[in-house]
Amino acid sequence: MPAVSITDFATTAEGAAFYRAYDRVLEKWPADITSTDLDSEYGTTRVNSCGPDGAPPVVLLPGGGATSTVWFRNVAALATRHRVHAIDLIGDAGRSVADGTPIKSTSTLLSWLTTVVDGMGAESFGLIGHSYGAMIALAYALRAPDRVEKLILLDPTSCFAGMHPRYLARALPILLRPSAKRQRSFIAWETNGHAIDEHWLDLSAQGAAYFPATKTVVPPRPEPAHLRSMKPDTTVILAADSKAHDSRRVAADIAKTHRQIRVVTLDEATHHTMPMTPAAALDTELVRALHPQR
After folding, report:
1. Phi-psi region for residue 155, left (φ > 0), alpha (ψ -120 to 50) or beta?
2. Cα angle 171-160-79, degrees, rounded to a multiple of 5
3. CA atoms within 13 A of residue 106's CA, in its CB half-sphere
4. Beta pairing class for 125-130 and 148-154
5. Nearest to 84 by CA among 68, 96, 95, 98
């Protein structure tokens, strides 16, 4: 498929198919979903929300290419006590449109996120991120600690340790020559027989193959001293069978050097089954992290 701009993507056959796949996964969400497009100097950001108006807000940041729809098995548990806002990362697959000031640095990436939470009217909030979304969440919590009440990082990559070389080697062909087949093969390898939602997998594959690519801004791994002085109450939830990194080593390193951070490891979870599987166990830990007194 010839390169197209993000503004023209929806007019192509591939774009129409991608957005149909997106909506098919979004249909798995609770019925009270509200979808909002927030304008800023960086473009338009799609936010999918559910839960009681006026309830304490929780912001969800997905992994790269996963889109905000990926939280469909988690939002019902969170929305019992929160207004849940799942964001399509700007410049990444989803319904956000990066047609404004380009995001070329961590500073502008975090400024973009500030415009989004300001647009939602969220002065302070819980912040949950998975994978690349966890990297952004951690960087934001360090930059704006007074705004993040609770920070939850799901199998965070390049936050406390580097990624496994084998994982990077498997991911590289998708970055160099993306295709639906390569994306499906990569997810199948990493999940290693664990259940994965077929509708979401189709969305992920189409996004990898056809969504207009932009340069990903990767926040640098924080200095240990910055992590030790981090203000927000933080929970890290690791996938026991993750191939992105050695979860046991990451858990041990956090326990040794950052004792203020609570660490949980979920069995029957891989990097790319999260946050969809194991949903019940993950939902329990998310609620516990948001409400530790319960």
Report:
1. left
2. 85
3. 16
4. parallel
5. 68
Q: Beta-carbon neighbour count of residue 115 at 10 Å?
A: 16
> pLDDT digits over 126-184, tens only?
999 999 999 999 999 999 999 999 999 999 999 999 999 999 999 999 989 999 999 99
pLDDT above 70 (res 79): yes
Q: Please name which of 40, 29, 54 lies closest in space to residue 91, comparing C-alpha atoms.
A: 40
Alpha helices for 157-223 (secondary structure H)? 165-176, 180-191, 198-210
Two tokens, residue 202: 């189709």
* CA-wise closest residue to 244 among 87, 59, 64, 74: 64
Q: DSSP states of the chain as a string?
A: -----HHHHTTSHHHHHHHHHHHHHHTTS-TT-EEEEEEETTEEEEEEEES-TTSPEEEEEPPTTT-GGGGTTTHHHHTTTSEEEEEPPTTSSSS-B--SS---SHHHHHHHHHHHHHHTT-SSEEEEEETHHHHHHHHHHHH-TTTEEEEEEES-SSSSSPPPHHHHHHHHHHHHS--HHHHHHHHHHHHTT----HHHHHHHHHHHHHSPP-PPP-PPPPPHHHHHT--SEEEEEEETT-SSS-HHHHHHHHHHH-TTSEEEEETT--TTTTTTTTHHHHHHHHHHHH-TT-
Give the tokens for residue 210.
């056809």
Q: Give the C-alpha separation, 234 to 151, whole Å.
A: 5
Distance CA 89, CA 214 (A): 12
Task: Judge contact between 70 and 200, C-beta under 8 A.
Answer: yes
- Give yes or no for a contact between 81 and 55, defined as CB atoms under 8 angstroms apart: yes
Please, are residues 62 and 200 in contact by the beta-carbon 8 Å criterion? no
Q: Can you give the length of the chain in residues?
A: 294
Mean pLDDT confidence for 40-51: 98
